[in-house]
C-alpha cells in the first residue's frame, strides 16, 4: 500500500506545470486550405486522443531551459505551417471537418523532481499520465472543448526531470489522424528542430495529403449564393400544354445529363451586377420556345410533360479559387458541386415534389475567384438526348448574345409502350473518370494502323473515321485492363454506340430537333478475337447503313412498337453491362457564346461506369475522351503503352 501511495504522490506532487503557451503556425494558412474535411474513416474513428511520449537522457537542464525550449517552440511553429489542420479547431463531438484557423496548439512546460533514470526504472505505465498535456489520453468521453464545443486536435508537453533528461509528449485527436500520422508529425518536428530536410518519403506523403486536401476543400468552399425559379417570359399557349414523349423518350434512361462550359477572365463585379441578370432574362426568353423544359414530368415512367410554365431552378454559386487553378489541378469528380442539386447521370431517386414530379431542366452558374464562370445545366434524359442539351445551351447563349434561335419540337400522338424504361444498375461506387487527349496527328497514325490491321485480316476497312478508330482502341485497351485485373481471365462485354439519327433517316430531321433522337449500335464481344477492328468497325458500318434505310421517324417508332417485352428486357440487361462510347464530336461544343467569347473548356460531368464520351478538342486539334472505369482498371489503362502511344 505504501508503494502505491508513493507512486500516487509522485503523479500528484512531483510533476509541476511551469508554463502554458499557445504556439501558432509561423506562416498563415492559405485561404483555400482553411477547411480540412474529415474522411469517412476519420469520422467513424475513436473519439479520443492518441498519446505518444519520447524520453531523452542527459540533457543539461539549465541549457534546456534557456535554449532547447525556445528551439522546440520555433520548430513547432514552422512544422505547423505544413501540418496546418493540427493548429485549427475541431468539434469535440461528431466532427466532419477541421477549421484551419491557425489558433494554435497548447505547449506545456513541466518539471519532475526525480531523475529520469529513477522514473524509467521504478514507474508503472500509469505513471506516464501526468506527462501528457491536459490528460488527453486515449478514451475520454468528455474531450475538453471551449465554450463553443470545439477542441484543438494537437497538444504538447515537455517535462524536465531532475539531473537532466526530458520527456516530450504529444496527443493527437484520433478524428484527425492515426498512430502513423502522429509519429510522422513528431519525426517531422524533430527534423525541423535539428535543421534537417524532411524525410523524402514523408515529404511525398505530405505533398499527396496537401493535394487531396486542396481538392476536397475546394468542394466544400463552393458556396451556394442564391436559388431562384425562372419561368418563361411568355405563357405557353393552351394547345401546347401537353408535350407527349415519344417511344424513344419513354424507354430512355431515368437520368439527368450534365453539361458544363467554362469561361475565363470575366470581371467578377461586372458579372455580379449585369451578367447574371442577363442570363436570367435570356433564359426566360429561351424557355418560351423550349417550353416543355419549364414544365413538370413524372419522375417514374412518364409519357408526357405537363407544360405548366412552373419554371426551372437557377442556382448562383461561388468558388474561392481561380478558374485556371481549378482547370489545371482538378479531377473529373471535382465537377460534381458545379452542377445543380447533384443531378448527375444516374439517380435512382430523381428528386421530385410531393406529387412525384420533377423539372426536366436545372441550371447553375458558378463564379470563380479572379474572374471566370462555369455555366452548368442538366436535362432529364426522358425529355431529350445529348444533342438536345447542346442545342438548348447554344440557343440560350444566342439569346443572351441577341441572336435568333430555332428549336424544332416534334409533336407525337399520345402513345405509351409496354417496354421498360432504363433504371440502370450502373454504379458510381469505386469508379473514376479521367480524360485522354488524342491529337489529330496521332489519330491519323491510328487510322493507318487500323487500315493495315484490317487489310491483313482479309476484311479491309477502308478510310476508318477518327471516331471509329478511337472507339476500337479505347475498347480493346479497356478490355485488356479488365483482363489484367482478373488475372488473365477474359470476360466478354458488348460495345454500344449511340448514333444521332437527325441527319441519317431518309426524311432528315432538323439539326435542332428536340427529344431522344438516337439509336444504339450494339457489337457483341464474346471472345478476344471479337475485338479485332474489322469486326467492331464493320458492325458499326453495317448498322449505320441499316439506319439510313429507315424512311422517317415514324418508321423508328414502329420498330420499337413491335418489339416484344422479352426482347427489350434482354437488350436492356446486356446494355446495362456494356461499354458505351458516345461521340459528340459533331455537336456545336465550343460555339456556346453568351457574349463572353467562346469557352475555354466544355465537358460532361459525373461518372457512369464503363461509359466514354468523345468530344472535339478545343481548337479542333483532336478528340478528348472522357472515360469512366473501376479504379484499378483505370490505373492499368493510364499506364498502357498501347493507348498512350496515340495520346
From TrEMBL:
It comes from the Eukaryota. It holds the Pfam family Transferase. The keyword Aminoacyl-tRNA synthetase does not apply. The keyword Electron transport does not apply. Signal peptide: none annotated. GO terms for molecular function: acyltransferase activity. Keywords: Acyltransferase, Transferase. Belongs to the plant acyltransferase family. This is Acyltransferase. The lineage of its organism: Eukaryota, Viridiplantae, Streptophyta, Embryophyta, Tracheophyta.
Amino acid at each position: 500500500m505504501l508503494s502505491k501511495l508513493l507512486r500516487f504522490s509522485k503523479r500528484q506532487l512531483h510533476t509541476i506545470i511551469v508554463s502554458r503557451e499557445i504556439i501558432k503556425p509561423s506562416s498563415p494558412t492559405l485561404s483555400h486550405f482553411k477547411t480540412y474535411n474529415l474522411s469517412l474513416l476519420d469520422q467513424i474513428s475513436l473519439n479520443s486522443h492518441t498519446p505518444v511520449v519520447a524520453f531523452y537522457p542527459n540533457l543539461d537542464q539549465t541549457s534546456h531551459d534557456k535554449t532547447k525550449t525556445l528551439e522546440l517552440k520555433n520548430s513547432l511553429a514552422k512544422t505547423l505551417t505544413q501540418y496546418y489542420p493540427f493548429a485549427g479547431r475541431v468539434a469535440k463531438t461528431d466532427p466532419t471537418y477541421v477549421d484551419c484557423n491557425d489558433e494554435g496548439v497548447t505547449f506545456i512546460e513541466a518539471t519532475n523532481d526525480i531523475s529520469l533514470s529513477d522514473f524509467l526504472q521504478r514507474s508503472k505505465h500509469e505513471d506516464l499520465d501526468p506527462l501528457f498535456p491536459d490528460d488527453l489520453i486515449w478514451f475520454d468521453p468528455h474531450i475538453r472543448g471551449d465554450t463553443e464545443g470545439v477542441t484543438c486536435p494537437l497538444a504538447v508537453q515537455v517535462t524536465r526531470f531532475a539531473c537532466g533528461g526530458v520527456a516530450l509528449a504529444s496527443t493527437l485527436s484520433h478524428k484527425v489522424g492515426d498512430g502513423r500520422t502522429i509519429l510522422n508529425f513528431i519525426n517531422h518536428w524533430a527534423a525541423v528542430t535539428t535543421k534537417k530536410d524532411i524525410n523524402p518519403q514523408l515529404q511525398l506523403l505530405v505533398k499527396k495529403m496537401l493535394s487531396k486536401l486542396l481538392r476536397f476543400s475546394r468542394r466544400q468552399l463552393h458556396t451556394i449564393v442564391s436559388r431562384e425559379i425562372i419561368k418563361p417570359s411568355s405563357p405557353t399557349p393552351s394547345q401546347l400544354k401537353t408535350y407527349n414523349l415519344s417511344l424513344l423518350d419513354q424507354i430512355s434512361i431515368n437520368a439527368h445529363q450534365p453539361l458544363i462550359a467554362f469561361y475565363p477572365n470575366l470581371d467578377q463585379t461586372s458579372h455580379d451586377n449585369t451578367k447574371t441578370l442577363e442570363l436570367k432574362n435570356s433564359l426566360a426568353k429561351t424557355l418560351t420556345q423550349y417550353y416543355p423544359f419549364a414544365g413538370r414530368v413524372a419522375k417514374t415512367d412518364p409519357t408526357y410533360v405537363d407544360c405548366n410554365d412552373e419554371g426551372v431552378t437557377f442556382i448562383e454559386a461561388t468558388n474561392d479559387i481561380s478558374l485556371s487553378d481549378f482547370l489545371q489541378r482538378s479531377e473529373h469528380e471535382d465537377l460534381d458541386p458545379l452542377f445543380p442539386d447533384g443531378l448527375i447521370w444516374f439517380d435512382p431517386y430523381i428528386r421530385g415534389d410531393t406529387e412525384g414530379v420533377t423539372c426536366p431542366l436545372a441550371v447553375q452558374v458558378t463564379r470563380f475567384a479572379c474572374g471566370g464562370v462555369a455555366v452548368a445545366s442538366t436535362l432529364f434524359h426522358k425529355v431529350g438526348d445529348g444533342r438536345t442539351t447542346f442545342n438548348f445551351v447554344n440557343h440560350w447563349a444566342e439569346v443572351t448574345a441577341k441572336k435568333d434561335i430555332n428549336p424544332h419540337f416534334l409533336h407525337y400522338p399520345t402513345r405509351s409502350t409496354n417496354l421498360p424504361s432504363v433504371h440502370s444498375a450502373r454504379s458510381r461506387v469505386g469508379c473514376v473518370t479521367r480524360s485522354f487527349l488524342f491529337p489529330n496527328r496521332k489519330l491519323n497514325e491510328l487510322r493507318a494502323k487500323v487500315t493495315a490491321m484490317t487489310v491483313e485480316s482479309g476484311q479491309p476497312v477502308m478510310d476508318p473515321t477518327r471516331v471509329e478508330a478511337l472507339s476500337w482502341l479505347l475498347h480493346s485497351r479497356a478490355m485488356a485492363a479488365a483482363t489484367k485485373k482478373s488475372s488473365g481471365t477474359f470476360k466478354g462485354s458488348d460495345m454500344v454506340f449511340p448514333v444521332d439519327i437527325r441527319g441519317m433517316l431518309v426524311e432528315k430531321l432538323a439539326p435542332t430537333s428536340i427529344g431522344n433522337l438516337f439509336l444504339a449500335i450494339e457489337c457483341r464481344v464474346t471472345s478476344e478475337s471479337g475485338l479485332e477492328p474489322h469486326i467492331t468497325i464493320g458492325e458499326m458500318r453495317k448498322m449505320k447503313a441499316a439506319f439510313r434505310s429507315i424512311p422517317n421517324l415514324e418508321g423508328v417508332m414502329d420498330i420499337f412498337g413491335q418489339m416484344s417485352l422479352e426482347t427489350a428486357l434482354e437488350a436492356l440487361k446486356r446494355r446495362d453491362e456494356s461499354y458505351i462510347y458516345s461521340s459528340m464530336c459533331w455537336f456545336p461544343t465550343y460555339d456556346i457564346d453568351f457574349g463572353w467569347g467562346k469557352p475555354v473548356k466544355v465537358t460532361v460531368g459525373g461518372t457512369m461506369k464503363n461509359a466514354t464520351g468523345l468530344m472535339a478538342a478545343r481548337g479542333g486539334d483532336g478528340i478528348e475522351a472522357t472515360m469512366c472505369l473501376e479504379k484499378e482498371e483505370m490505373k492499368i489503362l493510364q499506364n498502357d503503352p498501347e493507348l498512350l502511344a496515340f495520346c
